[in-house]
Automatic annotation (TrEMBL):
Keyword tags: Hydrolase, Metal-binding, Transferase, Zinc
InterPro entries: Cu_polyphenol_OxRdtase, Cu_polyphenol_OxRdtase_sf, Cytotoxic_necrot_fac-like_cat
Domain of life: Bacteria
Keyword Zinc: yes
Record's catalysed reaction(s): inosine + phosphate = alpha-D-ribose 1-phosphate + hypoxanthine; adenosine + H2O + H(+) = inosine + NH4(+); adenosine + phosphate = alpha-D-ribose 1-phosphate + adenine; S-methyl-5'-thioadenosine + phosphate = 5-(methylsulfanyl)-alpha-D-ribose 1-phosphate + adenine
Organism per entry: Phocicoccus schoeneichii
Protein name (Swiss-Prot/TrEMBL): Purine nucleoside phosphorylase
Length: 254
């Protein structure tokens, strides 16, 4: 489903766009010539602003229509509207704190979140203008942030489509027993055990959660792209010395 563009992988149709930015062809030093999209790391803000404008032009979705929250690995979901446009885009603020999922029924809004291994999940309806995005690392996945986002939809869930985007793939995501602690439901298809180490598949866990909620497998797409690939940022593999991608979804009125 996701197509390969210069600065992102995703879908960019006349009505609907969603995707995930690459690390390539930028101005930041995280690493050299990186396309960092986060304001909160030690990067020159001018670099981030340049990247924002490049992406805005490539998407044809201007930055004044973007909304970005302050994420905290929670399961808090908020509805945003046109009054929230511009939040945390050019400068950080105290608005939309501790938010790891957003949705709107309005068009001409681009919902964005930053990632560098955690799972971006995009949701849209085929029958109305609903769109949503979630940030699901292991903590958000444990807290079932995806189900919390699905729960706010007012229509028929058969009209929803879920796209599980670029995240670290299972073979590169080793965790300890403090993560796999028996307090949350991890399907056997999403975990491999090697002594006291575990390989965890966050994409698969979120896919199963969507099915448990009532979606059919045909409503869910899981991308093969992973942050262990050279074209994406990986906080884990680069030991924190890296930039952040922007996962985004929006609808246009024309």
């Amino acid at each position: 489903m996701l197509q390969d563009y210069k600065h992102f992988v995703g879908v960019n149709n006349r009505d609907l766009c969603f995707g995930y930015t690459k690390r390539l062809y930028g101005f930041s030093d995280y690493p050299k010539d990186a396309f960092n999209m986060a304001l909160y790391i030690n990067d020159d803000l001018n670099n981030v602003h340049k990247h924002q404008e490049i992406l805005a032009k490539e998407l044809d979705f201007q930055t004044e229509n973007w909304i970005i929250p302050n994420q905290r690995h929670s399961n808090r979901v908020v509805e945003v509207t046109s009054k929230d446009k511009g939040t945390n885009v050019k400068t950080l603020s105290d608005e939309l704190m501790n938010v790891d999922a957003m949705y709107t029924y309005e068009k001409d809004i681009l919902l964005g979140m930053n990632y560098a291994d955690c799972t971006p999940i995009f949701i849209y309806s085929t029958s109305d203008s609903f769109i949503g995005v979630a940030h699901a690392g292991w903590q958000g996945t444990k807290l079932e942030v995806l189900k919390e986002l699905l729960r706010v939809y007012k229509g028929n869930i058969k009209d929803l489509r879920v796209v599980i985007g670029v995240a670290i793939n299972k073979n590169s995501y080793e965790v300890d027993s403090n993560v796999v602690d028996g307090t949350w439901d991890i399907p056997s298809s999403a975990i491999d055990i090697y002594g006291d180490k575990y390989l965890l598949d966050l994409k698969e866990i979120n896919r199963k959660q969507a099915i448990d909620f009532g979606l059919d497998e045909s409503q869910i797409h899981v991308t093969h792209y992973g942050t262990e690939m050279d074209e994406f940022f990986s906080y884990r593999l680069e030991k924190g010395n890296t930039g952040r991608a922007l996962g985004f979804i929006g609808r246009r009125s024309k």
